[in-house]
Structure formats: structure tokens, C-alpha cells
Amino acid sequence: MIKMKPHLKTLSFLTMGAILLFNSCSKNNDDVVDTEKPTVSVNYDNGFPQACSLLQRRHTYTIRARASDNVGLAAYSIDIHNNFDHHTHDNQEAECELAPIKDAVNPFLFMKNYSMENGLSQEIQQEITIPENIDTGDYHFHLSVTDVTGWQSSAYVDVKIIE
Ligand SMILES: [Zn+2]
């Protein structure tokens, strides 16, 4: 039994070597670098919200957007924040007529993350209810999609929340 020990050691050393070799091989295969960002858009017939949409307080809407990626979609987030100060973002959809700049009193702020099933394309569908006691006015609807590599793409849409 004592003589088995060095033999086992050699064996495990070989196994280790094989595992290392295998790992480095499979790692090389994974090293096909993903340089493509995912895409996300509401620019199609059922996409929502479209630029300049009016959203009524107390109403529930279904967000619809198309997302795709070359490797796999990992997650998306929805963020709605006020644009009472007329700020802008990259990737913004058509500009809409804005109400005069004003101070926020009780602005609607929505931010939530959702996981995706690593598919190559998915239509995002998510219900959102606009609360009752929030400031009406100009808002940005911000949709962000992340792929399995960590690349992120965003779409910003101007919307108005009305009574
Ligand atoms: Zn904004």
C-alpha cells in the first residue's frame, strides 16, 4: 500500500496536467472575442413606448421592445426618470416638444432589472403602471440591454406623463 503512494502522485500529477491542458484548450476556444454589442429597439409596429408617447397616470402599459445579440442576451433594465431639466442622452429617439423647464416636486422614478434567458433574440414585454400622485410632464424612458459578455446597449425615448 505504501508503494501505491508515489504511483498515485504520478497519476494525479498527470491528471492535473491533462486538466490544465484541457482547460487551456477550451479556454482558447472561448477566446473568440465577443466584440458585438446587443441591440435594443422600440422602432417597430408593436414597439412601446414610441417617441413622444403620452402615458396617463393610473394606467398600466406594456413595454415592448426587440432585443438581439450575437452570443446571448443576459439582462435588461427599465428606467424612467423626469426630464424637467431638458437634459439629453446619446441614442435618443426623435426629439419631442418639451414643456418649459420646471422643478420636480414628486417625480416618478422607476428602475428595475430583469434577467433574460441567454437567447439570441427576445421581445421584451413588461407591464408598468404609472402611479397616481406623481408629477406630470416630460420623462425619459430608458431601456438598457446587457449581453452575456457584459456589453450594453441603450434606447432612450421621450415620453410625457399626463393626468
Ligand atoms: Zn434622461
How would you explain this protein's 3D organization?
By secondary structure, the protein is of the alpha+beta class. The protein has two domains: 1-32; 39-162, Immunoglobulin-like (Sandwich). The chain is built from one helix and eight strands. It has one helix at residues 4-30; strands at residues 39-41, 53-56, 60-68, 73-82, 110-115, 121-129, 137-147, 152-162. β7 (137-147) and β8 form a beta hairpin. Mean pLDDT is 87; it is low at 24-28. The structure holds zinc ion. Zinc ion binds next to loops. Zinc ion is lined by residues 81, 83, 87, 89, 140.
Tell me which CATH architecture of the largest domain applies here.
Sandwich
Write down how many β-strands occur, each being a DSSP E stretch of 2 or more residues.
Answer: 8
Roughly how many Å is the radius of gyration? 25 Å
Under the CATH scheme, which class of the largest domain? Mainly Beta
State the order of secondary-structure elements, H for helix, E for strand: HEEEEEEEE
How would you describe the shape? elongated
Terminal-residue CA separation: 84 Å
The whole-number mean of residue pLDDT values reads: 87
Give a short account of the largest sheet. 5 strands, mixed
Number of domains: 2
Number of helices: 1
Spatial order of the strands in the main sheet? Answer: 2-8-7-4-5
Structural class, judged by helices and strands? alpha+beta
- pLDDT < 50 stretches: 24-28
Q: Which strand-content bin applies to the residues?
A: 35-45%
CATH topology of the largest domain: Immunoglobulin-like
- Which compounds are bound in this model? zinc ion
The residue fraction in helices comes out at 10-25%
